[in-house]
Amino acid sequence: MIIQEVIDLIEDFAPTKYAEDFDNVGLLVGDSSAEVSSALITLDTLEATVEEAIKKNCNLIISFHPIIFSGLKKLTGKNYVERTVLKAIKNDIAIYAIHTALDNQYKGVNDMICEKLGLKNRQILIPRKDSIKKLTTFIPSKDTDKVREALFAAGAGSIGNYDHCSFNIQGKGSFRGNEESNPVVGEKGMVHFEEESQISITFPSHLESKILKNLFDAHPYEEVAYEISSLENKNQHLGMGMIGELESETDEEAFLKHLKDTFKSGCVRHSKLLKKPIKKVAVLGGSGAFAITNAKAVGADIFITADLKYHDFYKAEEKLVLADIGHYESEQFTKNLLYSFLSKKISSFALILGDTNTNPIHYL
Fold first, then answer.
1. How does it assemble (predicted)?
2. Residue 274 pLDDT grade (very low, low, confident, very high; cuts 50, 70, 90)
3. pTM of the predicted structure, to 2 decimals
4. Structural domain tally of the chain?
5. What is the pLDDT of residues 79-107, one digit of tens each?
6. Starting from the edge strand earliest in sequence, which strands make up the sheet with 38-42, in order?
7. How many CB atoms within 10 Å of residue 155?
8. To the nearest 10°, the Cα dihedral for 288, 293, 299, 300?
C-alpha cells in the first residue's frame, strides 16, 4: 500500500473535514505516493518517536497529536519541533496526524474514556453543528430506484441508527432542449412533460463530492437538476466530549480513586466534593475547560478532562465535580484505538504500536 491509501482508510473513519479550525491535521511530512514498509502508531511524534520508527524500520508514523501545530518558518533544528521534522525528513519517514478529527468522532477519543470507565447510554456532549446537508433532486420515475440506491451506496440517507432514509414525492416535470441539447427523453425544441420523482435525502457534509459523483453517474438526464442545502440539525454522532452513566451509583472518593488507577494518573486534581453519589459522567479528553458549562447543562455529576486552570475549578459552582486527570492520561489509549481500527483493515504490512512514553509531565 502507498501512504495515501492508508490516509484514505483513516479519514474514512475520522474525516479531517471535522477537525477544529485551529488544528493542523493530515500528512505533515512526507510523500503520499510513497510505499509503506511499516507504520508506527503513537500519541505524539517527538525525536524519540522518530528514533523508534528508525529502529523498527517504519517509514510512516501515524500520530494523534500533530508535531507541526503553528507555522514553521525555518528548519534549523533550534527546537524540538524542528529537530523532529528534520530527523523524519533525513530518514524518509512520513508523519500523519489526526488529532481533533478523531476527537469529534463518536467512536473516537472520548468513547475510549467511556469504555475504560464502563459507561452506558453514551451520547455526544457537544453535538456538532453544520455537518448535515440535504440533497433534493428530480428523477424520471422509472430510474428512481437506481438513483436512490446509488445515493445510499455513497453514504446518503443515514440518520443516527437508521439508514436508507429518504423522502419521495411523485410529480410531473417539464423541459425543452435547444439545438445543442441531446435529451434522453423528448425531442429538441419541443416542450416535454415527464413523470418524475423528487427525492430529498440527507448526508454528512464530508461526503458531498462522493454523493454528487454517484448522482451524476446514475442519473439518466444530460442536465441533472438538484439543490443542496445545509441543515441546522445537530449531529448526534459527531462532536466534542461524551456523556454516559455508570452501571450503579458510586461514592465520590471511591470513583476518583478508581479514575486515578484506571488512567494511571500521577494525581487527580478536583473541585470540591459535594457528598453526592456519582452516576452521570461527562468526559472530554485533552484540554476541556470550554465544556464545563455543557457538562453542567446535561446534569453530569462529574466532568473528567484535563488542563484545568485555577479559575476553571470555580466554574463547578457546587453543581458537579470537576476532575483533571492529566492531558496525556486522558488520551493515552488513542493510539490503541487507531491500532485496533487499522489492524482490521490492513494486512499488507506491519502495524506497530509505539512504546515510547511521550508524557512530558512527571510527578514526585
1. Homohexamer.
2. very high
3. 0.91
4. 3
5. 999 999 999 999 999 999 999 999 999 99
6. 26-29, 94-97, 60-63, 38-42, 350-353
7. 16
8. 20
Distance CA 196, CA 40 (A): 53
Amino acid making up residue 43? L
**pLDDT value at 173 more than 80:** yes
The CA-to-CA distance between both ends of the chain, in Å, stands at 45
- Look at the block and give the residue holding cell 442536465: 223
CA distance 337 to 325: 19
Residue that the C-alpha cell 514553521 belongs to: 72
For residue 36, how many other CB atoms are within 10 A of its CB?
20
Give the Å distances, CA to CA, from 10 to 118, 207, 298. Answer: 26, 15, 31
Cell numbers linked to 277: 453519589
DSSP string for 224-239: --EEEEE----EEEEE
Strands (E), 48-93: 60-63
pLDDT digits (tens, 9 = 90+) for 54-86: 999 999 999 999 999 988 999 999 999 999 999
Contact 41, 332 (CB under 8 A): no
Neighbouring-strand partners of residue 219: none
C-alpha cell of 194? Answer: 415527464
CATH code, domain with 117: 3.40.1390.30
What is the DSSP secondary-structure string of 262-293?
HHT-S--EE----S--EEEEEEEEEE-GGGHH
Write out the residue range of the structural domain in which residue 337 sits. Answer: 3-99+333-353
Q: Please report which helix (H) or strand (E) contains residue 66, including its range.
A: none
Largest CA distance in the chain: 85
Given a contact cutoff of 8 angstroms between Cβ atoms, the answer to whether 110 and 103 are in contact is: yes
Angle between helices 3-13 and 334-343 (to 10 degrees): 110
Q: Report d(CA 213, CA 218) in Å as an integer.
A: 9
In a domain, 169, yes or no: yes
261 band by pLDDT with thresholds 50, 70 and 90: very high
Cα separation, 332 vs 356, in Å, equals: 12
Both 121 and 244 in a single domain?
yes
